[in-house]
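User: Quick sanity check before I run a bigger batch. Here is a single chain. Can you write out its predicted 3D structure?
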Amino acid sequence: MAPRTPMNGSAAILLASCTALLLPSRASRQQFVHFESPHVHPLERTQDGTRLLAVNTVDARLEIFALSNAAPYLTLIGSVPVGLDPVSVRARSATEAWVVNHVSDSVSIVDAADLAVLLNAWGSTSELADIDCNHIVDAADISLLLNRWGPCN
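Assistant: Done. Predicted structure follows.
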């Protein structure tokens, strides 16, 4: 076996430089940090006790649940887009909710009366409720309403 010879100074510097280039930097190894605004009042029951409203901060939505005394006690009935980073919801009445959005610095007003017009006209040819103009009030109309139901400007 051949004896080992010590590395000269320039070879050691070259080896250290190559190693530093091949290893990932500390900044590139750090994981993405997910930031959300803290909730203020994320859940609210409507005054008539039939609905639970919940802010979905990650998806920027207001989730609407039906409450029942029998199983299933909680049923998702709707999801409405609101502003960015919703942190608080308050039910102003049994059909109207106000959502405070932290990042978009806005208040979204969600009114179930708009949805009630569609549900009452379900299956009819009502021009008032036929949003997509296909001559029938159906799920496509509700989808269009919910997708455009956002923050007030």
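Residues 46 and 94 are 5 Å apart (CA to CA).

User: Great, the batch can go ahead then.
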